[in-house]
Design goal:
Elements: H1 3-20, E1 28-30, H2 36-44, H3 50-64, E2 71-74, H4 78-90, E3 102-106, H5 133-140, E4 144-149, E5 160-161, E6 165-166, H6 182-189, E7 195-200, H7 206-212, E8 215-218, E9 238-243, H8 246-256, E10 291-295, H9 303-318, E11 322-326, H10 330-356, H11 367-376, H12 389-399, H13 407-431, E12 435-439, H14 469-474, E13 478-485, E14 491-497, H15 503-517, E15 533-535
Parallel strand pairs: 3-4, 3-7, 10-11, 10-12
Antiparallel strand pairs: 1-15, 2-4, 5-6, 7-9, 8-9, 8-13, 12-14, 13-14
Helix pairs in contact: 3-4, 6-7, 8-15, 10-12, 10-13, 11-12
């Protein structure tokens, strides 16, 4: 037999064996789309470390600030902290998924090493005596506080502050990023960090999440500690995470839940209601068989927003969801604005003074001093302080509010809130709902200068008829997912609203919707930079 004939079967056998072997494909990393899991995978493979990661984010901040006006204070020690955390990792110690991960904080979270100002120029340079509880939890988990970011002043009014100026939406610089956590919304959309924190009193996490096209969670009140956060109204306040993926929301909850905080009595309510790992609820098939209510009361204000929400509902049906239209009781729709303001305005006047007692000498100690200082700024100053006339209007309204012993305030707190809570619970129960969905902001983001100075939600919601403050009036959780874009490139978000302590269910439903639609987009005014994509 000819040699070639004898070798042919052997060659074919070898080729078949090679074809059966698994193909090792290089992994691709893209900072613009990376989740915290993706970042950790690149670190584990030796393709990335925290010091390089922080450097990439600092380059982005340098590239897009001050045009976006998202950052008030950068952490000058961020690279050194990253280097130390890399050394820990090399020594075999990992603190978990947030080890060496940069985080940005709305500048009403207390940090002992970075000033906490609430965006108010009168608190410039104020260093608190201790970290906010959530900051302590994040640091213990290895997170790096990269920056303190801009906000509506004292978390109310338009998306600007006297200290940080006007924040700009990275999808359209002429549009508002919404408030009050506008700086966090901008920073996460522009990818200054994978994880940020805002606060929510009437929609202040959720308005910026939808306006900037990101994911955000207003948790059940009591799930996360508010200790060390400048209060706006403790009857409604809560902090919460803002990210670019549902997965990252779940990871963040693993770090900040499950502890009763003696500094915040509301955390007592969470005993027995938390879970050790929220990521285990993330299920692409979670919408199958789920009963989803569509809150039709909040459509009809912007035809393109409505069209996107209808497409979102269709996507849920395609995933097997059972969709039913629901209406909120007419009574709660009529009273919610007055009820909200009857509590929010008196509480800020009293509760901000409790916070100001913790500041050092030389800073304002009363609401009256805040008002007086605000009235002095009628034009931009040489050192960059800006007049904030929308917030000034609110300061004046708060000054006229009664004390916390007022019968009207007490009636709203003790009778009005339970009535609204029971009414909304009845909607869930009567329709056997897993969640209610609605357009987080029923209109696209407004042009800067056109946004209302004092809408129903105290500056938090994008429009007066946004239903976001129902989550605050009830204390219930609300998860925001990007749903799409208008024809002029503006983000639209959809809310998954659920009963108290339903975060696992909302995360499951939101994750299934997110994975089916993938509506996240890189903002046109904050594109990727060289070095942010690589294979390994």
């Amino acid at each position: 037999m000819h040699l070639a004939s004898r070798l042919r079967p052997l060659v074919l056998t070898a080729l078949c064996a090679l074809s059966a072997m698994p193909v090792l494909r290089a992994a691709e990393f893209n900072l613009s789309t990376a989740t915290i899991a993706d970042i950790n995978a690149a670190i584990s493979a030796g393709a990335l470390d925290s010091e390089k990661l922080v450097s990439l984010y600092l380059k982005r901040i340098a590239a897009y600030e001050p045009a976006l006006h998202a950052v008030i204070t950068l952490n000058p020690n961020a690279l050194a902290e990253a280097k130390a955390l890399d050394a820990e990792r090399k020594a075999g110690k990992s603190r978990g998924p947030l080890h060496g991960i940069p985080v940005v904080l709305k500048d009403n979270f207390d940090t002992t090493d970075l000033p906490t100002t609430g965006g108010f120029y009168g608190l410039k340079g104020s260093l608190p005596p201790q970290d906010a509880t959530m900051v302590t939890q994040l640091r213990a988990a290895g997170a790096i506080i990269l920056a303190k970011v801009n906000l509506s002043e004292f978390a109310s009014g338009g998306a600007m502050s006297s200290l940080g100026g006007q924040s700009h939406n990275p999808h359209d610089l002429e549009r508002t990023p919404a408030g009050s956590s506008g700086g966090t919304g901008v920073a996460i959309a522009a990818n200054y960090a994978p994880l940020g924190y805002g606060t929510d009193t009437g929609g202040s996490i959720r308005g910026p999440s939808t306006a900037n096209g990101i994911v955000g969670l207003k948790p059940t009140q009591g799930l996360l500690s508010r200790a060390g956060i400048i209060p706006l109204a403790l009857a409604f306040d809560t902090g919460g995470p803002m990210t670019r993926s549902v997965y990252d929301i779940a990871v963040s909850l693993n770090v900040t839940t499950g502890q009763v905080d003696p500094r915040d009595a509301a955390t007592q309510r969470a005993v027995g209601k938390t879970v050790p790992d929220y990521t285990r609820f993330l299920d692409k098939a979670a919408l199958k068989g789920a009963r989803i209510g569509v809150a039709r009361d909040f459509l009809g204000q912007d035809p393109e927003v409505d069209a996107i929400i209808e497409s979102a509902v269709s996507a849920m049906k395609a995933q097997g969801a059972v969709v039913v239209d629901v209406r909120y009781p007419e009574t709660v729709l009529k009273i919610r604005g007055d009820l909200y303001n009857a509590i929010r305005r008196p509480e800020f006047k009293a509760q901000v003074e409790d916070y100001l007692k913790t500041t050092k000498p030389g800073f304002p100690k009363t609401h009256a001093e805040i008002l007086a200082l605000s009235e002095k700024i009628t034009s931009p100053t040489a050192d960059g302080v800006m007049p904030n006339l929308g917030r000034l209007t609110l300061y004046r309204q708060e000054a006229k509010s009664p004390g916390l012993d007022d019968p009207g305030y007490l009636a709203a707190l003790n009778y009005g809130l339970p009535f609204v809570r029971a009414s909304i619970e009845a909607v869930f129960t009567a329709n056997k709902l897993d969640a209610i969905v609605y357009p987080t902001s029923p209109r696209r983001p407004a042009k800067i200068g056109e946004e209302p100075a004092s809408p129903v939600a105290g500056g938090a919601a994008a429009t007066p008829n946004s239903p976001t403050n129902f989550a605050n009036l009830t204390g219930f959780p609300d998860l925001i997912i990007p749903a799409g874009f208008t024809t002029n490139g503006l983000p639209v978000g959809i809310s998954f609203f659920g009963p108290a302590w339903s975060e696992p269910k909302l995360l499951a439903l939101g994750y299934a919707y997110e994975q089916a639609t993938k509506a996240l987009r890189v903002p046109v005014h904050a594109p990727g930079l060289p070095g942010e994509k690589f294979t390994y």
